[in-house]
Amino acid sequence: MPQSRLAADEDARRRYLAARESWQQQVTQTTARNQKLQQHHLGEVHRWEEMQAAYLRQRDEGNSRVEQKKAAYQQGDPDAIAEYCDMVLSYSEYPESFPQEWDLEYRAETKTVIVDYRLPAPGDLPTLKEVRYVASKDEFVESYYTESAMNKLYDCALYQVALRTMHELFEADQIGAVAAVTFNGWVRSVDKATGKKVTACVLSVQAPRQEFEEIDLGNVDPKACFKALKGVGSSKLYGLSPVAPIMQLDTNDKRFISSYSVTSGLDQTTNLAAMDWEDFEHLIRELFEKEFSVNGGEVKITQASRDGGVDAVAFDPDPIRGGKIVIQAKRYTNTVGVSAVRDLYGTVVNEGATKGLLVTTADYGPDAYAFAKGKPLTLLSGANLLHLLAKHGHTATIDLKAAKQALADRDTETG
After folding, report:
1. What's the whole-model pTM score?
2. Which of 4, 45, 148, 295 is deepest in the core (most CB within 10 A)?
3. pLDDT for 168-227, tens place per residue?
């Protein structure tokens, strides 16, 4: 065989071996990549299945809660009826200038719903009447309502809100639980004489169901209808003259107990995280009483149950930020998780409160803050608590490590 032929064959053999090795490397790399992709795919499928299972659990739990609330409502449970009425009002659509805030109470003995409703101040309503385009000047020209027209419009709007609110509550009542509705309209404004912000009830009306259902709301004059229902209010509502509500919300609760002072015994050596849990609840009650009393509010502590329910309730008379506020005190030495915040939100809903406050000696995890975002909840950490104490002239400390040891020693002694 010629030498050139042998050389060509050897060269072909080398190229073949090199190509086969390259192919084998590509097969190995592709197999490894496919295995990695397959593992990633299986991981994503597993993650999706976990998310699906979590969603289904949340859905089922949510549906279960809805069914429980529905059953409680149909059985005439007063708390469920109050929550249902609150939900009805939350679906009302109003212009942005209307605050749409309220506090609500249901009195089962008389089947009466009492609503304290925040109404807009005269200056909250838009005064723009129309905008015209003037072609000759190539500009837009705005025109506004006169003061007289705005006063008339304002009064009419308030009468309509009162009638609409009562209508919505009566119409939504499916089990005959509401025999009467009392509407108290509150307005927060600036007193021109003092320059201070004041809150006053400017109109109040009560209507029995039978009498109200005989009214053809589509054809009535709102003011005349209000007066026919024996509503109370100034002839010029825009003047914001205060009137006494026909019925007022009841702030009494059989769970409330006598309280005692704790702040007088505080000093720099007091470790709040190691404090007796009952003393800690009374401390929180006393602290927020000082905070709310500035605006005429009050704070009451509930019976010591250690069940994670309501530890204290604040009643703020200001309908803007006020109403019923649930307070929970957590003397914790570990980070507070989302479950405690979720429980607080459930309590706020069940109590028909406007807001919930959770106070702890520790701090909160990211999931707790994420859950509270966008909800009527305020989370106060140990640092916030010390700041609030200092604001009212008291000093104390929070040493979680020392508290854990003290609590462990206490458990050992009692074990």
Report:
1. 0.53
2. 295
3. 999 999 999 999 999 999 998 887 777 777 788 999 999 999 999 999 999 999 999 999
d(CA 118, CA 92): 14
Closest CA relative to residue 267, chosen from 144, 137, 389, 92 = 389
Paired with 305 in beta bridges are none
- In angstroms, rounded to a whole number, what is the distance separating the alpha carbons of residues 182 and 180? 7
Could you give the CA distance from residue 79 to residue 65 in angstroms, rounded to a whole number? 14
Q: What is the pLDDT of residues 118-170, one digit of tens each?
A: 999 998 889 998 999 999 889 999 999 999 999 999 999 999 999 999 999 99
Nearest to 355 by CA among 387, 328, 382, 391: 328
**Which residues sit opposite 48 in a β-bridge?**
none
Tokens at residue 18, please?
Answer: 């090199």
What Å distances lie between residue 32 and 25, 27, 29, 36, 45, CA to CA? Answer: 10, 8, 5, 6, 20
Helix (H) / strand (E) element for 338: namely helix 338-351
Q: Element (H or E) spanning 370, and its range?
A: helix 366-372
Q: Which residues make Cβ contacts (< 8 Å) with residue 8, sequence separation at least 6?
A: none
Q: What would the two tokens of residue 333 be?
A: 């030495």
